[in-house]
Amino acid sequence: TMKSLEVGYWVDEEPYELSDDFPASELCRLERVSAGAGYRQELFAECPPIFVSENCSPPSDSLMSLINLCGGKVSTSVRKAGICIGSMTRRTQAVNITEQWLLDCITEHAVLPYTNYALNSPAKRRRETSPSY
């Protein structure tokens, strides 16, 4: 952006791509260039609806925008979601994972397994023993 400001027009982004740190950046750029004006990211298109908790970091609005930009479906209802991102206080049958899953999927340009991102939601915890009376 700074170089573009200096020269007064948009310069080619390829020399400034951080491909080593963000391997998907080159792939995304090439997809966008080959598809033209109608390009739409489809990374999360095959995922079930995604619910984002209000107490997320980055903020939930930013995460929901990323989901939409990557072709995903945002759910406003925990009950209708297949994936819940962030800490949940309600019981849910959905997969409950950290915000980092979403960010890593975008960085890698792949839907990653949930296993390394699973949250132990208080709503899902089970009592190990019966209370004594």
Automatic annotation (TrEMBL):
Annotated CDD domains: BRCT_microcephalin_rpt3 (cd17751)
InterPro entries per the UniProt record, alphabetical: BRCT_dom, BRCT_dom_sf, Microcephalin-like
PROSITE patterns associated with the record: BRCT
Stretches assigned to the BRCT domain: 39-119
Gene3D superfamilies cross-referenced by the UniProt entry: BRCT domain
A biological-process GO annotation: mitotic cell cycle
Stated name of the protein: BRCA1 associated RING domain 1
